Structure formats: structure tokens, C-alpha cells
Amino acid sequence: MLAKNVVSLWARSGLAWLLFTMLFGMYLGITGQFGISSPHAHAGLLGGLWAIGFSYLFNRADGDKNIRFAFWQWLLFNLGVACHMTALWMVLMVDPKWGVLIGLGGGTITLTTIWIVLVLWPALQGDEN
Questions:
Q1: How much is the mean pLDDT over the chain?
Q2: Which of 17, 53, 67, 102 has the least C-beta neighbours within 10 A?
Q3: What's the predicted TM-score (pTM) here?
């Protein structure tokens, strides 16, 4: 997948996460669930801001380069955020047994982020001569 297409994918998903976070925050406020801020914060920070940050980094990596596995990185990261956020919600609202999925989502986010860094690091190195 070309870097310029990856930029669009990450930017659009980041905006979607930010919109979801805003609506989710409104729901929590309207229903008076002020103690349930953790899933809201994780959706906005990880899903929204990190995705926008990755969009910027992929843009800096050069729009004409083909980035292998970029779609899978995007998919795994977003599935990890969705799993993590949902598990946080379920632990707080339903049953603490859902806590095991917090680690699954968080681990997926962490490993995918490391993978993305390993791919982007060489592409972001400037001309050091």
C-alpha cells in the first residue's frame, strides 16, 4: 500500500475515533456516568490521537513509497483499541472477568505500535550525509 493511501486511512480512522469519543463522552455526561471515563479516554487518545499521529508519520515517510503490511498494521491497531476500550467498559459496567481482554487489546496495541515504529524508523531518517 502506498504511503499516501496509508496516510488517508489513518487520518480518516483517527477522525472517526475522535467523533465516536465525542459522542461517547456526551452519552456519559447526559447519563451522569462520570466515573466511566477510562474507556472514553482510551478511545480518544489511542484511537483518535495516535491514529492522527501515525497519519502524520506515514506522510513524512514519503507518499510514493510502498509500505508492506500497512493495512494489517492499521487493522490490528484499531481492533486492539476497540477490544481494549470495550473490555474497559465491560469491566466497569458488567463484570471484572472481562479484564483479561484489557490485556489482549493493550498487547495488540503495543505490538502493533512497535511494528509500525520498526517500519517507519528507517523511512523517516533524513539524509545524514
A1: 90
A2: 53
A3: 0.89
